[in-house]
Amino acid sequence: MSPDRPSGRCGKIPFTAWLILPDRPLQTYSVFSDGVLEYAGLRRQFLFRRLDPFTLYTLTLEACTRAGCAHSAPQPLWTEEAAPQSQLPPTIQSVGSTSVELSWSEPVNPNGKIIRYEVMRRCFEGNAWGNQTIQADEKIVFTEYNTERKMFLYNDTGLQPWVHCEYKIHTWNSAGQTCSSWSAVKTRQAPPEGLPPPEIAQVSVSPPKLLISWVPPEKPNGVIQSYKLRRDGVLYPFSFDAMTFSYTDEELLPFSSYSYAITACSRGGCSTSRPSSVTTLEAAPAGVSPPALWTISATQINVSWSPPSIQNGEITKYLLRFDGEEYLAGQSLSLLVSHLQPYTRYNFSLVACTNGGCTASAANSAWTMEAAPQNMDPPKLQVTGSESIEITWKPPRTPNGQIRSYELRRDGALLYTGLETRYHDFTLTPGMEYGYTVMANNSQGGVLSPLVKDRTSPSAPSGMEPPNLQAKGPQEILVTWDPPVRTNGHIVNYTSFIRELFERETKAIHINTTHNSFGTRSLTVNQLKPFHRYEVRIQACTRLGCGSSDWTSIQTPETAPQKQPSPHLEVQMAPGGFQPTVSLLWTEPLQPNGKVLYYELYRRQVATQTGKSSPVLTYNGSLTSFKDAELLPFTEYEYQVRNVYTNNSH
C-alpha cells in the first residue's frame, strides 16, 4: 500500500491501497476490509481507494472453488500519514488592553501524529488618530510541542492597546502542515501615553489672559473622548471634546504663578501630563490708598504711605503728585515736602509703579500752618471834606493765614480795630496833613503797611448827604441831591460818581455851572444795564476843596429778555401706537434782563397751500421742557418760546 504524494502546502492527501492476490486457478476471490466486502472477482489484484491517512485497516482474503472457500489470516495494515486537514481557527477567550487569551483544538483530521502547533499573529498598526492602518508581517508568537491534549490555551501578552490583530493556528505532523483561517480581535483601550505638557502663551496683560494649547498623546491607546485641564492641581469643572486643543484662561491675577496640566481620557482611562508653569506679566498696582499727611510747619508737610494692597508686581518707584507736578520718592514710604506756602491747602496723591504700569490714589489734602502776613499795601486816602478823610485798604497780598483783625492808626494813634476794609475819619482839622497806616493780623503775627499821608481841604464843603436815586427805566436812573450842609463857600461844580456794585471801575460825570443839571441838582444817567445794582455818590466842590457824600445804591428795573434760543426738537412715537409726539427742550435767554416768571410755548402748523396758521399756546410754566402729543401725523409744525418776566412783558 502506498500513498499518492500531496500537491499543495496545506492540501488534502489522497491514499490508494494495492492488494496483490495469489496466482491460483480458483473460481472467485473476495477481499474483506474489517469484515466488509470490498472486492469479488477473478482478478488477483485490487486497488483500494478513498482510504483515510494514518488509519488501521484489517484485510481478509477469501478464495473459493466449487468445493468451498478458504480464508486467509487477517492482515493489519496502517495507511501512511498525510498533512493535517480542517484545522479550526482559534477561539478568543479573553481580551485585555495588552493581552489576548485564545484556545484551539486539534484538527478535525490530524492525518497522523501532530508534532507541533504554531500560533501565528499579524497586527495592523495605526497612527495616533486611528484613520490609517498598516498590516504588519506575520510571525510565530508561540509553538506548542505538547500535542497529546485535545484543547490548547495561549495568552499573548505585550500587545499595544486598541490594536486590531488576527490569529491562526499552523498545525504540523511528519507528513506536512495545515493552516486555520484567521480569527480577528481588537485589544481593549488603555489610558493614553506620551502626553506632552501643554504650551502656554500670554495673550493679554490687562486683564491677564493665557492661551493654553496641547497636542494629542503620542500613543492614544484608544479613541480620545475628552480633554480636561488642571490649574494648580485643581480640575476645571468642564471638559473639552477630542478636537479641541486650546483654551484661553481669563480669571487670572497679574504677576502670579500658575501651573497647568492636561488630562486625556479614553474608554480605557485617563492620563495626565507633566505640568507647565508660567508667571503672568506685571500690571499696574491696585488698591493704592491715599497718603497720610502731617503738617510740620508753615512750609513743611510730612507725607507717608503704605504699599498697595494688590501690588501686581514689584514696586519700582513711588511718585507724589501735588501742585500739578510729580516728585520722585523712590521706594521709600515717606517724604518730607518743604518750601511750601503758608496756610495753603495742598492736595497730595500717591502714584505707585511697577514694570506693568502706574496707578494713582485718590487725593488727600492738608493745610500748612499759618505764618505772619506779608506784603501789606498802603491804604488809599480820599479826602471827603475839610474835616474828613475816607481810608480804604485791601487785605495783604500774602495773608499766610486767616486775617483776624485790622488796626488803623492815624499818626500812631489807634483809630479802628476790626475786619472792615474801610473807615471814614471825621472831626479833622481843615488843611491839616494826616498820616495813616494799617496793620493786618493773623494767629502768627501782623504786617504793617507803609505810611501814607494826605491833607484835608482847606475849606471844602462838608455834610454832603447821599443823593436820592430813582429808576426811570431799565437803562436810566434819575440822580437828585441837596447842597452840602456846610458849603464853606460858593459851589463851583458837582461831580457824580457811579459804579456797578462790586465793580472797582467808577464813572465820573462832572457838572459845572454851565451844565443843565447844575441848577436843578438832578442828573439822568443812561446807558445802564437792566436789572443791575449801581452805587452813586455826589461830590460838591468849592474853589478851596471838595466834599463827598456816602455811596447809595439802586437797582435798575427789569426789561424784556433778549436772545431767547430756539427750542430743541425731537420727534418720537408714543409707545404702543402711532401717535407722534414732539419732545421740546429750551434754555433761558442769553440776556434775561430780569427774573423770568414763566415760559410760553406756541405752536403753529405750516400749511402747504393756504399759508401758515395762527400760533396756538401749547404750554406755559416755569419748566424748560415739554412733550407735545396733540399732533397730526406727517404734518409740519413750528414752535416758538416766549418768556414772561415780572411785569408780564414778553
Question: Nutshell version of this structure?
Answer:
This protein is mainly β and 650 residues long. It is built from 1 helix and 55 strands.
Pick out its properties.
Immunoglobulin-like, disordered N terminus, 650 residues, single chain, 5-stranded antiparallel β-sheet
Q: What percentage of residues falls in helices of 4 or more residues?
A: under 10%
Average pLDDT for all residues: 87
CATH superfamily of the largest domain: Immunoglobulins
The coarse overall form would be: elongated
> SS-based structural class?
mainly beta
Detailed description of the structure:
The protein has 650 residues and is mainly β. It has seven domains: 2-78, Immunoglobulin-like (Sandwich), CATH 2.60.40; 91-186, Immunoglobulins (Immunoglobulin-like, Sandwich); 199-279, Immunoglobulins (Immunoglobulin-like), CATH 2.60.40.10; 292-367, Immunoglobulin-like, CATH 2.60.40.10; 380-455, Sandwich (Immunoglobulin-like); 468-555, Sandwich (Immunoglobulin-like); 568-644, Immunoglobulins (Immunoglobulin-like). Helices cover 1% and strands 48% of the residues. The strands form 14 sheets. Strands 11, 12, 13, 15, 16 and 17 form a six-stranded antiparallel beta sheet that branches. Strands 3, 4, 6, 7 and 8 form a five-stranded antiparallel beta sheet that branches. It is elongated. The N and C termini lie far apart (148 Å).
